[in-house]
Amino acid sequence: MTRPRLRHLAFVVRDAESMAAFYVEQLGMDLFHIDPDGSRFVTDGYLNLALIQQDPGGDVPAGFNHFGFDVPGIAAVIDGLVGAGLPHPALRDGNRPFAEYRAIDPEGNWFDLSEHGFLPPHV
């Protein structure tokens, strides 16, 4: 891989279990991870789709949430973002299996950066 590749899309959903079942049953995707909060992760073997369980008491609306890039070298990408005047990407919580950093683009859209990739090791 010589450049970052889009590998991850995330949506906040009201019912992650039924949404995952829809994508598995209707579009042949594979369920590969379930978070303790019920969020589901499905994949077509190339791109993963995070179906983030909406917290009914929270303030995050349902709908598109963020996207993620698999990058060949995080340090160089971070240097480029900071050099372009963007905030330094934030290190994600250590229990996140799919992304090391969260960044924002010039219009404030969130995106993840991962050097180890977004798919599980067996895919």
TrEMBL record:
InterPro entries documented for this protein: Glyas_Bleomycin-R_OHBP_Dase, Glyas_Fos-R_dOase_dom, VOC_core
CDD domains on file: VOC (cd06587)
Highest taxon of source: Bacteria
Residue ranges of domain VOC in the record: 5-116
Alphabetized UniProt keyword annotations: Dioxygenase, Oxidoreductase
GO terms for MF: dioxygenase activity
UniProt name for this protein: Glyoxalase/Bleomycin resistance protein/Dioxygenase superfamily protein
Lineage: Bacteria, Bacillati, Actinomycetota, Actinomycetes, Pseudonocardiales
